[in-house]
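testing teh design pipeline on a random one, pls ignore if ur not involved
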């Protein structure tokens, strides 16, 4: 099972306009505020070279896996709680493959989560991602936008970040615009239509069990 992705242009506008940046206003502030300038962003016009690719494992391995996932996708959370853990132990931590995580943005909550996950750099990204996927049923269903915002802030603090650092990341409009454009460019190029999806050595695959993943990787590794 997978989550279907909305047309990229439509989801980008939905994310950056019409109150998508409520989180930056704080849980105690009613209403919502659009991010200035972001709603008019066109991916082709935005320089995305500043976006850091989140990679673990062996970047020089013969087999490279790119996962496209949303922090609010239940199937992505299930993948990370099950298949990913086995992949990490058997293929990523052993250096057999390189593994890149790329965010897909279904909604504003997934974007907020992405901003928190990236807030303290690559060193903490996968640890925070693990916390978010494991606790998705709690923070993503906390209720109001303010409650979800506070749950994400809590994850940031549990990861060792100060409140000021978290707020600075969440109010970084330039980074938001860049991430939306980066998502659009990647998802268009790799023809991503659902999550989780995987690009393995340039070939697109849908979600699969660990047994199927293992068989595929072993074939590509010549094992």
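output:
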């Amino acid at each position: 099972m997978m989550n279907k992705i909305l047309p990229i242009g439509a989801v980008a506008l939905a994310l950056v306009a019409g109150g998508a940046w409520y989180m930056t206003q704080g849980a105690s502030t009613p209403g919502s505020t659009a991010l200035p300038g972001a709603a008019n962003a066109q991916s082709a016009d935005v320089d995305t070279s500043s976006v850091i690719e989140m990679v673990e494992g062996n970047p020089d391995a013969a087999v490279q896996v790119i996962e496209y996932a949303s922090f609010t996708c239940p199937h992505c959370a299930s993948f990370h709680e099950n298949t990913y853990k086995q992949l990490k132990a058997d293929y990523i931590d052993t250096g057999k493959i390189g593994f890149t995580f790329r965010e897909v943005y279904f909604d504003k909550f997934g974007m907020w989560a992405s901003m928190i996950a990236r807030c303290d750099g690559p060193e903490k990204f996968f640890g925070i991602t693990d916390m978010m996927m494991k606790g998705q049923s709690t923070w993503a269903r906390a209720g109001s936008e303010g409650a979800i915002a506070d749950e994400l802030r809590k994850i940031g603090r549990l990861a060792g970040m100060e409140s000021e650092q978290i707020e600075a990341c969440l109010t970084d409009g330039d980074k938001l615009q860049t991430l939306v454009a980066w998502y659009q460019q990647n998802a268009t190029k790799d023809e991503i239509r659902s999550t989780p999806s995987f690009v393995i050595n340039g070939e697109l695959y849908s979600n699969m069990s660990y047994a199927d993943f293992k068989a595929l990787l072993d074939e590509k590794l010549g094992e």
